[in-house]
From TrEMBL, chain C:
This is BOS complex subunit TMEM147. It is a multi-pass membrane protein. The keyword Transmembrane applies. It comes from Patella caerulea (Rayed Mediterranean limpet). It is found in: Cell membrane; Endoplasmic reticulum membrane. One of its GO terms (cellular component) is endoplasmic reticulum membrane. The chain crosses the membrane at residues 170-191, 197-219. The keyword tRNA-binding does not apply. Its main location: membrane. Belongs to the TMEM147 family. Keywords: Cell membrane, Endoplasmic reticulum, Membrane, Transmembrane, Transmembrane helix.
């Protein structure tokens, strides 16, 4: 190419003059992106595409649509030398013709079907054939200009205009869309249960296509088709032998077809009965198969032979419901198949018999179905069930039978609400209700008894049976004006349904009436309880007729009174003398009748006394009288065998405190008894007393000589009935005991007690003469009498029970005095005498001690007391009978004692502590000790005078619980008198050890420190740990002083790496009460040492060496090679020395040297 | 730094505050706005006054590291100095510095620097002034600022007697825990009431041991109070009394007597200071009798007497702590080994740990304990002694530990606020032994604050070695001369060059031939 | 006063440089830029040295007291790089020979001065604290000026081929001494325990005699062009 710019050129040739400028030539890269494009010179069609870079390209000619060139595209591998462009050759594109385009359209549409073969003919002979693509387009390419004919043909479709003419001049020819396909074939299949049916007509309807456009199907009206749709069928076809039917040519649009298949006189039903489809630009194969589902038959349902039709009756074929009859009773059965069917009809209240019949296409009209029987319904209305039946289930039954033929009676039981229904053939029937006897007895009565019914062709539903109702009425006769009185009617046996009605004054008398009364036994009572009626209520029975004539007559006035006790009461009318009488009333409220109206006086008469003697009652204003008894008469009787006239009964009652004394009772002359035996026979005395109810009385009878058994009787008056005789005494003569004491001794006490102890002892004191008399006593008991006086010995005279002899005993009274003559108390005096008499007593506070009741004899007295010497030490005493010996003993203090108190610090006593007094110096021998009492005080006795004692708490294993005493001990000199007030304070043993400590450290470390205590035996398990938060001091809880070893150690949470410190530790034994430890803890911060980067110094010389070597490499390298080769040879020598098999091929010494080329420096 | 506080209107200690001044020895002529560094003995009141008149910038007094090394008269001098310095109104800020090696050589250098004034010839003086190196004293740390509502904390605890607590009589033991000295930072206050606090704690421990055991549970309530602000006219106690008098917890109303403990750490004498001798039969009298008996019977070597000093309402500083109670008509007295309150040792920084002898301290504890015990267990009749022995004896080990802890660092009032570690430790200890221990803090009331503290008690002093200005002139002159020399040399370098050449030529000639 | 003191020190340090610069006639040959270039070279060499030090030498923090001789010794070997730098500068700078080493020495010294002296003076001298060491430091910078010029001269001499052989070892030893000067100073401080003033004097003497010898050698070069200034 001229001066290096590459380019591709060439000519677009055409033997036909085409407008070259429309043709474009483009250069593409292999993967389709445009590198360069140009158009052609209009005159010569020359084009040139400059190329700037080598590589492979694709040269394409881009004519206007439709023009075709040859070749379409050329691949170029531009490499500057041997491809076309660089060789300067022309790349020519030959114009091979225009293209003819056109469209095959469906009639009436703008687009057409694809797959129609279109052929291009020029003056008769076919040049090209092509198939239409979708929408009916087709194109012929390489069509040289000239006049052509385009013919379209299709094996099935008919073309309206099969061919058209197109002229190609200098541009594409356009055949336009005047190849029109008139229509497309539409076909379908009809079959019945698998075998194809011939002769089924299919009527075509369409809303969009007009009839004249459709060809190839019968347009005449179909015989027998009563198409009632709005639109008229366009045409129809009939199915062939193989069940196929075809509409040869249907233009595009929406259609629907209806099948119609009519036998001689039966029209079959074909499903589906309507199929819509749409014709596009294709022939249509109806997918849905038509199926002759059989024929349709119709029939009629009548209610009687000549009756009218039964509407809305359900027709069932073989049990499954098919259709419903229309208004006139007709029904249609669609797509029936020939066969025998059971046809049944169902409707409410009309019954049909099932009929089985054979249905064939030849029997379009089924015989009429006549109703066979009708329903007969009704209701038994019982609005008020007698209560007796409430619980009993109703077995009422309904019986009906055709008139005249009683034998065929049929019984039926109604439902709960009384309804009943049955099926009867047309005819006259008699219907009755059968009641069980129980129901009849209970008063259930239904009306009407029977009903006569005729059934023609209509069911009867309104048979009603209802209950019988009666009317009750009566009159009331009163003595005076009746006033408003009510009458109540209630059913016997059941109390709930009470009906009350008021008595009306209907001029000639007082009447009352009740209606709507159900049959049954009733009781009517008059509600007026202040009057007496002959009968308050009457009973009657309602069977099936009304009840009249009930009368109530008043007989008097009721007196109601409530009495607290059963009494009899007599009443008397004030004015009318006659009516007097008495009634016996029992406890509670009583009512009795007073015949006459007016005022009555009532006097109760019983053993009770009521508040009022006489009560008045006025019949005109009835008021309830209440009588409460307040007092009850209590009687008692006493029987004595002789006359006693000084008998006094005393009654002590619980209610009032003063005993009631009923004066000397008079003998009760028994009227019946004969006068003579009244002198000697048993005499009875009676007494009576009004006591209140609930009063507890003790009755006792006293008399001078007579004793009464039982002595006292206790009764309580219960108050609800007459107490009557409550006390019965029996008087018997009393026994007396009298005795004396010789010599006459005044003031001796005599005790008389029953041997068997049944009587509590009686004591009395003898008088100056020494005599005594006890009585009256019960005669049947034996008694024991004893007498005593201090200082005397009483002995019993033999044979006599109650006379005594008194001996005065001897006495010794001893008085002890100390040196100063004062009485010395609690001196121990021991007296021993004959017949083992012994008595040891302590002198009282007055120093006096009297030994009494000493029988005369010789006695030995010895006074004893620590620290004292008595003068005389001991003595013998002679006691005469009845004498008192007075003895005085003088004592002298020999030793002294020390008083003191051992208390705790706050003054609490320390009982049970042993105090010891140790003699010192010359009297170190004697040792006295004593124990402190409960109040902590102690008294050490027997301290020798002129001795010094060391007094303190006794040590040793005695006072274990005392740790120490303050003062430990006190030395005291005993001289002439006791030592008082030695107060010692004792401290209990609290063997607790307190440990405390402090840590000397700076504040910042304080919070990290913990102090822990370990026992020596297991040093790794701390007993206690204390963390020191704020305070430098720490206090361990107290430990037990038991000499066990402990270790006190400090732990800290400071990390070892940061600080170096040592943890002090102290070992101690728990042997003292308090220990304090001081720790010092001062960690120094370890100097932060960064780790030394252990580089060595050698690096620098090495690097210098390296640089040096690098610098003089020419010299170094040969040196290196030579050394290496030398090493190599030594290696190979060694290898040969060991001839070994596995080295099969000799190792040639690779000349390494050559490889090691120094990379040249770029 | 020296104390700085206002107490009841009068303010003590210097107002201003040394910041950055040159050091001057004592004798130097011009001291205005200079900082004087002096040894203790050089500072006298008169010298101080005229320094103040010349309004010197500040005074640094060097005191030996261990203050006890001072000779007795030096100590006396320091004590007197302490009082006078405080009282001075327009004083200059005084600093006390322990004499470290650097300080001594600074002192010496400014000393001989000063000698320049007395130099014989003017030249020598000039030379001395020029060459002597002066010192620039720079104080670092926040300036002193008032702490208006500084809380003074008092810790109180109680031991309740057996029986119904309300009806039991009560004894109050009081000790103020703060210390006072001319410099708050150095006020260790070992005896002036470190000892009192330790005695109180020891009593608390002993009596709590007694009261826990039912058999030794006395019928007395005992209240322990560690009051703050003791050295400032017993502010803490005053406010505590006011709180507790009208409050319902009638701690004080039925107090049998109040025993204040002050300075019990040394010598063998005990004095009971009373503002009004207790009338016969009263609990106080009984306690006094007990003390006399006990000291006579079991501690013969202790000289005990009662000192009666009426409260003089005129002077505004009270003598003893018990006077606070006596003003409120409470029977109160103070036990101390000082026979008069005027001793300066109570408020001196000389009062360090070794002033207190633990043996004396535990002996005093035993005496007081016995006296109180005989009173509350009314053992007076049997004159029982040696009650507090072996199990109940005071423990010297814990006493020494407490003394070391208390005197470890300064306890002046303005350093101890409510939640300092000292208060916590004391409270923790008391709550170990006593019941319902609580800290009550008191603040000066807003309108006319009785006391006002100032912050800042410890400062670090940096001394810079400074050359006097004239020296720089010298230096400049020197350098100028040197430069001229250099210039001359470089100007005629070629002379040197040529001489060298000649020199080089000859040998070369010699070589070349 | 303190700023005045700072002024003194600066004067002490910098004015001699200016004087030398003036008098040595460099100013005529507008060698200023060459000096700057030398300074740049200096910077560059210092940078390389630092790089080498950083990579190869372990960070020894062996505390101030124990003298890690080997470390120091190796550090000084790195100082040879300075010589290399100087040599480089000289090869680079066009111009007469003595101008070359003068310029190199001058540039090198000034940049070192600027780099190492300004900050300590600014911080130290102006501070309140008065100390002799600032004065010593500035005096020492004068000494190091002389030292650098002499080293430059030595390097220049070494690189000249026409100097007679006998002087080479002297030159080499002087160079080596020059390099190991800080090492020697260290040793002096530690071993002998020289006070700061004595050290300064020692250093000045050492440099002066080094300088004289180099001057002498310089003079011995026969083919010295006479027409150069000196």
């Amino acid at each position: 190419a001229a001066d290096g710019v590459l380019g591709c050129g060439g000519f677009v040739k055409s033997d036909v003059d085409i407008n070259f400028s429309l043709v474009e030539v483009k250069l593409y890269t292999p993967h389709g992106s445009i590198k360069y494009q140009t158009d052609c010179a209009p005159n010569t069609g020359y084009y040139l595409i400059p190329l700037y870079d080598k590589g492979d390209f694709i040269l394409k000619v881009e004519p206007p649509k439709g023009w075709s060139f040859e070749p379409q595209s050329i691949e170029l591998q531009v490499d500057g030398t041997n491809d076309k462009c660089s060789k300067g050759e022309d790349i020519n594109f030959l114009f091979t013709g225009f293209s003819v385009i056109g469209k095959v359209i469906s009639k009436g549409q703008t687009i057409g079907p694809s797959g129609v073969t279109v052929s291009l003919t020029k003056s008769g002979e076919i040049i090209q054939t092509v198939k239409t693509s979708d929408n009916g387009d087709y194109m012929f390419t390489k069509v040289l200009p000239g006049e052509y004919k385009v013919q379209a043909s299709h094996q099935t479709w008919k073309l309206e205009k099969p061919e058209s003419v197109v002229k190609v001049i200098n541009d594409n020819g356009n055949a336009g869309n005047n190849l029109v396909i008139s229509g497309y074939d539409v076909s379908g299949v009809v079959s019945s249960d698998g075998e194809y049916i011939k002769g089924v007509n299919f009527l075509l309807f369409s809303s969009t296509v007009k009839q004249q456009d459709v060809t190839g199907c019968e347009k005449s009206p179909l015989k027998g088709f009563t198409g009632n749709q709005a639109s008229k069928p366009i045409c129809y076809v009939t199915s062939q032998q193989n069940g196929r039917f075809i509409f040869p040519s249907l233009p595009t649009g929406n259609y629907y077809i209806i099948p119609f298949y009519k036998g001689e006189h039966i029209t079959f039903d074909v499903l589906p009965d309507k199929l819509e489809f749409e014709v596009q630009h294709q022939s249509v194969q109806l997918q849905k198969q038509f199926n002759v589902a059989g024929f349709s038959v119709s029939g009629r349902v009548l209610d009687s032979e000549k009756g009218s039709g039964v509407a809305k009756a359900k027709i069932l074929l073989n049990g499954n419901e098919q259709t419903v009859t229309s208004q006139d009773g007709t029904y249609h059965l669609e797509n029936m198949k020939t066969g025998t069917y059971k046809l049944s009809v169902q409707t409410s209240s009309i019954y049909f018999d099932d009929i089985t019949l054979k249905i064939t296409p030849s029997t379009p009209q089924l015989p009429n179905i006549v109703a066979s029987s009708f329903s007969l319904c009704g209701q038994v209305v019982i609005d008020r069930l007698p209560e007796a039946l409430a619980s009993v289930p109703s077995q009422r039954r309904i019986i009906y039978h055709p008139d005249g033929k009683k034998s065929e009676a049929v019984s039926l039981s109604p439902e709960a609400d009384g309804k009943f229904c049955t099926k009867v053939k047309p005819g006259k029937y008699i219907i009755g209700i059968h009641l069980s006897e129980q129901e009849v007895r209970a008063g259930l009565h239904l009306s009407p008894a029977e009903q006569v019914v005729t059934i023609t062709n209509k069911p009867i539903k309104d048979i009603r049976f209802s209950q019988f109702r009666a009317k009750v009425s009566g009159t009331v006769v009163c003595m005076e004006k009746c006033g408003n009185i009510d009458v109540s009617l209630d059913v016997v046996g059941r109390t709930d349904s009470k009906q009350v009605v008021q008595v009306k004054d209907s001029g000639k008398g007082y009447t009352f009436s009740l209606d709507n009364v159900m049959p049954g036994k009733y009781k009517v009572t008059i509600l007026q309880d202040t009057w007496c009626w002959k009968e308050k209520s009457t009973e009657f029975d309602v069977v099936d007729s009304d009840v009249t004539g009930l009368t109530f007559t008043q007989t008097g006035y009721i007196l109601k009174c409530s009495v607290s006790h059963p009494i009899d009461i007599n009443f008397a009318h004030e004015k009318k003398k006659g009516s007097v009488g008495s009634f016996q009333l029992n406890k509670g409220t009583n009512r009795f009748c007073l015949a006459q109206p007016g005022v009555y006086r009532l006097t109760p008469d019983s053993c009770h006394k009521f508040e009022k003697e006489v009560y008045t009652y006025d019949t005109s204003n009835p008021v309830m009288l209440t009588l409460t008894a307040t007092q009850h008469r209590v009687t008692g009787s006493i029987k004595t065998d002789e006359r006693v006239n000084d008998m006094v009964v005393t009654i002590k009652s619980s209610m009032d405190d003063t005993p009631l004394v009923i004066g000397p009772l008079k003998q009760e002359i028994d009227p019946k008894a004969k006068p003579q035996d009244s002198a000697k026979g048993p005499f009875t005395y009676r007494f009576s007393h009004w006591s209140r109810s609930g009063e507890k009385m003790t009755i006792s009878v006293k008399s001078a000589e007579v004793l009464f058994y039982p002595p006292t009787i206790e009764t309580t008056v219960s108050g609800d009935d007459c107490p009557g005789e409550v006390a019965k005494f029996d008087g018997r003569k009393g026994v007396f005991i009298n005795g004396d004491i010789k010599p006459a001794l005044q003031g001796a006490s005599i005790v008389v007690e029953a041997v068997d102890g049944s009587m509590e002892p009686v004591t009395l004191v003898t008088d100056a003469t020494g005599k005594f008399k006890v009585g009256p006593l019960h005669s049947h008991i034996t008694y024991k009498v004893s007498a005593e006086k201090d200082g005397y010995v009483m002995t019993k005279e033999e044979g006599k029970t109650a006379s005594f002899r008194a001996f005065k005993l001897g006495e010794i009274s001893v008085k002890v005095l100390n040196e100063k003559g004062e009485s010395l108390s609690d001196v121990l005096l021991s007296l021993s005498g004959g017949n083992q008499y012994r008595s040891n007593n302590i002198t009282g506070s007055d120093g006096l001690m009297v030994f009494t009741a000493l029988s005369p004899g010789q006695y030995f007295l010895r006074p004893m007391m620590k620290e004292y010497k008595f003068e005389p030490a001991s003595q013998v005493i002679e006691v005469q009978e009845g004498t008192t010996e007075k003895i005085n003993i003088k004592s002298s203090r020999v030793a002294y004692s020390c008083y003191g108190k051992v208390t705790s610090l706050n003054g609490e006593a320390e009982p049970g502590v042993i105090i010891e007094a140790l003699g010192m110096g010359d009297c170190s021998a004697n040792q006295e000790e004593s124990k402190t009492e409960q109040d902590g005080s102690f008294r050490i006795r027997g301290l020798q005078p002129k001795c010094t004692y060391n007094i303190g708490l006794k040590t040793g294993d005695v006072n274990k619980h005392i740790e120490r005493a303050v003062p430990k001990s006190k030395t005291l000199q005993v001289n002439k008198d006791d030592i008082l007030g030695l107060n010692i304070i004792a401290f209990r043993q609290i063997n607790q050890m307190d440990v405390s400590g402090n840590i000397k450290t700076s504040d910042e470390y304080l919070s990290s420190i913990k102090v822990s205590l370990y026992r020596e035996e297991n040093p790794d398990h701390p007993i206690q740990t204390i963390s020191l938060s704020k305070s430098v001091f720490f206090y361990l809880p107290s430990l037990l002083i038991d000499d066990s070893g402990y270790i006190l150690r400090i732990e800290t949470s400071l990390s070892k790496t940061l600080y170096n410190y040592e943890l002090p530790e102290i070992v101690f034994t728990a042997n003292s009460t308090y220990k304090h430890f001081t720790f010092t803890f001062n960690p120094e911060r370890r100097s932060g040492d960064q780790e030394l980067s252990r580089g060595s110094f050698m690096i620098l010389p090495l690097s210098l060496l390296l640089i040096f070597a690098g610098y003089h490499y020419q010299k170094v390298i040969p040196f290196l090679n030579q050394a290496f080769a030398q090493v190599q040879t030594t290696v190979t020598k060694m290898a040969e020395q060991q001839p070994s098999k596995d080295y099969n091929e000799p190792i040639e010494p690779e000349p390494y040297l050559k490889k090691k080329i120094k990379p040249r420096k770029a | 730094k020296m104390q700085r506080y206002d107490l009841q209107g009068t303010s003590y200690g210097a107002k201003n505050f040394l910041i950055n001044m040159e050091a001057r020895p004592v004798g130097s002529s011009s001291v205005t706005r200079k900082c004087i560094v002096a040894r203790l003995e050089e500072v006298t009141l008169s010298a101080y006054r005229d320094w103040a008149s010349q309004n010197a910038g500040g005074l640094i007094i060097l005191i030996p590291e261990n203050i006890q090394q001072l000779s007795p008269e030096q100590k006396k001098h320091l004590r007197s100095l302490e009082e006078d310095l405080l009282v001075e109104e327009n004083g200059i800020p005084v600093y006390f510095a322990p004499e470290t090696s650097e300080l001594t050589d600074i002192y010496d250098s400014i000393q001989n620097g000063a000698s320049g004034d007395q130099a014989a010839t003017a030249w020598q003086a000039f030379l001395g002034a020029a060459t002597a190196n002066g010192f620039q004293m720079v104080m670092s740390g926040a300036t002193e600022k008032p702490l208006p509502d500084f809380p003074i904390a008092s810790i109180q605890g109680r031991l309740s007697g057996s029986g119904i607590e309300e009806q039991l009589p009560c004894i109050v033991l009081v000790a103020h825990y703060d210390s006072f000295g001319v410099a708050p930072g150095l006020a260790k206050g070992a005896d002036s009431n470190g000892s009192g606090v330790v005695v109180l704690l020891e009593l608390a421990r002993l009596f709590s041991k007694l009261f826990t055991n039912s058999r030794t549970h006395a019928k007395y309530n005992v209240v322990f109070l560690l009051s703050g602000g003791g050295k400032f006219n017993y502010q803490g106690t005053k406010r505590w009394i006011e709180d507790n008098l009208e409050s319902d917890t009638n701690v004080l109303t039925d107090a049998a007597y109040v025993l204040c403990l002050d300075m019990l750490g040394a010598d063998n004498s005990l004095h009971l200071h009373v503002s009004k001798p207790p009338k016969e039969g009263s609990a106080g009298a009984e306690f006094l009798k007990n003390l006399e008996e006990i000291t006579k019977s079991s501690f013969p070597d202790v000289k005990f007497d009662m000192v009666h000093k009426k409260i003089n309402l005129a002077d505004e500083m009270l003598a003893w702590e018990h006077e606070r109670f006596s003003i409120k008509r409470l029977q109160a007295f103070t036990l101390s080994h000082l026979d008069s309150h005027k001793y300066p040792s109570r408020t001196s920084i000389l009062d360090t740990r070794d002033q207190v002898d633990v043996k004396v301290l535990s002996r005093n504890v035993q005496i007081v304990a016995e006296a109180i015990a005989t009173h509350i267990y009314n053992l007076t009749s049997q004159s029982v002694t040696q009650l507090f022995s072996d199990a109940l004896s005071p423990q010297e080990s814990i006493e020494t530990a407490w003394l070391d802890y208390l005197t470890h660092d300064a306890r002046s009032a303005q350093l101890i606020n409510a939640d300092s570690s000292l208060i916590n430790t004391l409270q923790d200890t008391m709550s170990r032994y006593l019941k319902d221990v609580k800290i009550t803090t008191h603040k000066a009331d807003k309108r006319d604050p009785e006391f006002l503290f100032y912050s800042g008690s410890k400062y670090t002093l940096n001394a810079y070695n400074v050359k006097p200005a004239v020296f720089d002139l010298f230096l400049a002159a020197g350098i100028g001369a040197y430069l001229v020399l250099v210039w001359m040399v470089s100007q005629n370098f070629h002379l040197l060059y040529s001489t060298l050449k000649k020199f080089v030529q000859q040998p070369q000639k010699t070589k070349s031939q | 006063m303190t700023f005045f003191h700072f002024g003194n020190c600066v004067a002490l340090a910098y004015i001699p440089y200016a004087i030398v610069y003036k008098c040595s006639g460099l100013s005529e040959y507008n060698a200023f830029w060459k000096c700057v270039k030398a300074g740049g070279a200096y910077l560059f060499t210092q940078l390389c040295k630092m790089m080498v030090l950083a990579t190869f030498f372990p960070a020894t923090d062996s505390g101030g007291n124990s003298l890690d001789i080997t470390g120091e010794f190796l550090k000084c070997t790195v100082d040879f790089a300075d010589l290399l730098g100087l040599h480089l500068i000289m090869t680079r700078i066009a111009g007469k020979s003595q101008l070359k080493f003068m310029v190199a020495g001058m540039g090198w010294a000034t940049s070192e001065l600027i780099m190492t002296r300004v900050i300590p003076l600014w911080v130290g001298a102006r501070g309140v604290e008065f100390d002799w060491k600032y004065v010593q430091m500035s005096f020492d910078s004068n000494v190091s000026l002389v030292h650098h010029i002499s080293t430059a001269m030595l390097v220049w001499l070494y690189s000249r081929n026409d100097v007679n052989k006998s002087m080479i070892p002297v030159i080499v030893s002087l160079l080596v001494l020059g390099c190991y000067r800080p090492l020697i100073v260290e040793i002096l401080i530690h071993a002998v325990g020289l006070g700061s003033w004595m050290l300064l004097i020692a250093k000045t003497l050492f440099t002066l005699c080094g300088g004289l010898i180099t001057l002498q050698m310089y003079l011995r070069i026969p083919t010295q062009l006479q027409n150069s200034y000196y």
